[in-house]
């Protein structure tokens, strides 16, 4: 069974195309117009082993909000499509990832319900060319459209390290949660 998705979203603010393969090799081709965001999505792809092609054109002359939000929405839609019926997946997973003086913890549950709780506390307004406070909104947008729970927290000093650690921890948690390890739906309700 192929766990792939090809999705597109066009609004007056953004034009985004995403190809995803959950059973990939961590290959990526990502262009969003926001360089630090590209770097975070590349880290996510590499460490989750999810192949990602993302081409996003947005109104970044205004700011990066619409582009990053819409990539989060569409990435969640792609994930929801690619994960399919969820038969056999591990479903819940967590990861702790250090990066120099920082350490991030992320737990996920591919539950069919949307919830996001992130404690990031970045000190600066920007991380590279990306607005720092949009990171929480990216994860909220992803969780909402992917219909999963994400809990994340990071401690540290350097915002670059903290942000990269949270994306890598998210990648590692997702890598484990999407693993197929049996032939049942992992829910006592019988639905996810």
Describe, in plain words, how this protein is organized in 3D.
Helices cover 34% and strands 31% of the residues. The chain is built from 4 helices and 10 strands. The protein has helices at 35-48, 65-83, 134-146, 159-177, and strands spanning 4-10, 14-21, 28-31, 51-58, 92-99, 102-109, 115-119, 126-127, 130-131, 149-155. The strands form 3 sheets. The protein has a 4-stranded mixed beta sheet with strand order 1-2-4-3, covered by helices on one side. It starts with a strand and ends in a 15-residue tail after the last helix. The model has no long low-confidence stretch (mean pLDDT 97).
Structure keywords:
192 residues; alpha+beta; Ribosomal Protein S5, domain 2; four-stranded mixed sheet
Q: Which SSEs are present, and which pair or pack?
A:
Blueprint: E1 4-10, E2 14-21, E3 28-31, H1 35-48, E4 51-58, H2 65-83, E5 92-99, E6 102-109, E7 115-119, E8 126-127, E9 130-131, H3 134-146, E10 149-155, H4 159-177
Parallel strand pairs: 3-4, 7-10
Antiparallel strand pairs: 1-2, 2-4, 5-6, 6-10, 8-9
- Residue share in β-strands: 25-35%
Helix content: 25-40%
Find the structural class using helix and strand composition.
Answer: alpha+beta
SSE order in H/E notation?
EEEHEHEEEEEHEH
Terminal Cα span:
19 Å
Subcellular location: Cytoplasm
InterPro entries: IGPD_sf, ImidazoleglycerolP_deHydtase, ImidazoleglycerP_deHydtase_CS, Ribosomal_Su5_D2-typ_SF
GO molecular function: imidazoleglycerol-phosphate dehydratase activity
Pfam family, one: IGPD
Condensed summary:
The protein has helices at 35-48, 65-83, 134-146, 159-177; strands spanning 4-10, 14-21, 28-31, 51-58, 92-99, 102-109, 115-119, 126-127, 130-131, 149-155. It is of the alpha+beta class and 192 residues long. A hairpin with a 2-residue loop joins strand 8 (126-127) and strand 9 (130-131).
